[in-house]
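User: I've been going back and forth on whether these two constructs are worth ordering. Before I decide, could you fold them both?

Assistant: Sure. I'll take them in the order you sent them. The first construct and its structure tokens:
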Amino acid sequence: MGCGTSFVKYVLFFFNLVVALCGLAMIGIGIAVLMNWTVLRDLLQSHLTVAPWFFIVIGSVMFIIAFFGCCGAIRESHCMVVTYAIFLLVIIIVQVVLAVLMFTYAETMKEVLVKGVNGLFDKRSSDPAANAVFNSIQQQFECCGKTSPSDYGVIAGVSDLPDSCCTRANGVVGKLLSRCTIADANAIGCADRSGELYDKWNKIIAGVAIGVACIEVVGALFALCLANSIRNMDRRYA
């Protein structure tokens, strides 16, 4: 194997080693938050406002893909390197499509997001899973009901609200009051909050997705180059 191919091999290996470590770190953060690890929660209280399962899922995907890249490069396995390149190409396509949709159909995607949140609220009384997800949304985003806390009063006819309506910005989970009423609850509804967050972050997320896709294109080209070199070497010594 030539010097140029060896360079590609080691660049691919170390690049994916860093990605794998980042993936493990994200999994660790997600698990620590799920386990209510107070030290980490307090440290990240002003920076971590998304569900910990998001970190676990994204970290797992990063680790699995990087595993194929690392092992394929260091073992000079044509099959693993090609599999890694295919994974990358699929992710690149998904990222680019998502970014284009977020740039060109921003309002439509916002409406879909808001309808999804409203749908969860409507199903919460009959679906325990939907209720748990909506309570998590209320805690994470410090909101209550679809449009306001009065949504609970109109539907249920009660003065007390779910505890998740009374979270305050004192960490990832927030500090719950002993009894939650409309007077104590977060005033903004979750549909409005979701719309605000989408307007704030959609173009940033789309731009980051395009930037990361450009880096991934380089990684895919390196992987395909290495796979081609491995195949040629196998044919030469067959």
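The second construct, handled the same way:
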Amino acid sequence: MLAVLCVLLLSLYNPVCGVFQKLYCTISESCECDFKPNIRDLEWDLYKNLYGQHLAQDIVSEEVARFLQNKSPDRPLVLSFHGSSGTGKTLVSSMLGNHLYGSAMSSPYVHQFVPTLHFPLPQRVDEYREELKSWVQGNLTECARSVFIFDEMEKMPSGLIDVLEPFLGPSHVVFRTNYRKAIYIFISTTGEEVINRLALENRQAGRDREEIKLSDLQDAVAQTAYSNDTSGFFQSSVIQQKLVTRFVPFLPLSRRHVERCVLSQLCQQGSCGRTDVVDAVGGDMIYTPVQGQYFSTTGCKAVPAKINFFL
């Protein structure tokens, strides 16, 4: 109804539509009123605040922009983030929420699932399947632009995630629900061995990490997620049916990346000048392998605690 009125009023006086929409949004809880995507700010955030992840920066910015530019997508956007702890996977999922909705990650249309909290008992997987299907269906009915984030997929009960298959494919009618404008993010450490091995081989060969291409890792990460029995995608129909738009590898971080994390957090605390803390935290991290000391074993995850220790 709002759209029809806007079209009619647009021919008379364009600002009227904007005024009417603002009035509508003051009395409505429609998610379209809170959905305020800013792709430029997302790209800026990715390239300014995500360190050492050229693949993730490019893939996420390109795929999100392409998806949102399509006014009538034939399927949702499905991104699966893979890599070691502390490499930025959760950070990027938060960036998406922050730049898609006016109320950012606190938006009621951004839904986060953690297996140990929401699906803790493997023997109740059938019950969880029904609950998850009902939850997703209900929230898509309320808001077609819903964002669903599934963290710690390596701890997801086997077979649970397959209940999402009908929502992720190209079918035009599923449960009478508009589901094709939704975004799904899966976060996992599964595949970290494959990613880290390639990064190490690349480093030992003297090549820049930016020379690593998505094609070097995409199929290997997908295969690992499918064949690893600790993966939430273990023998999953979601992978069999090729319903994941992109598998996004997150590379291990070197000391210079860790130190950029330290400096960024110090600046947020008003302590940009504490280069002594930057050096101390960078030097206190554990790096692997023993011969070379190339990559932080915990990425940037331990940075906040170490900053507090050295300040």
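Notes on the second construct follow. Residues 1-16 have pLDDT under 50 and may be disordered. The radius of gyration is 21 Å.
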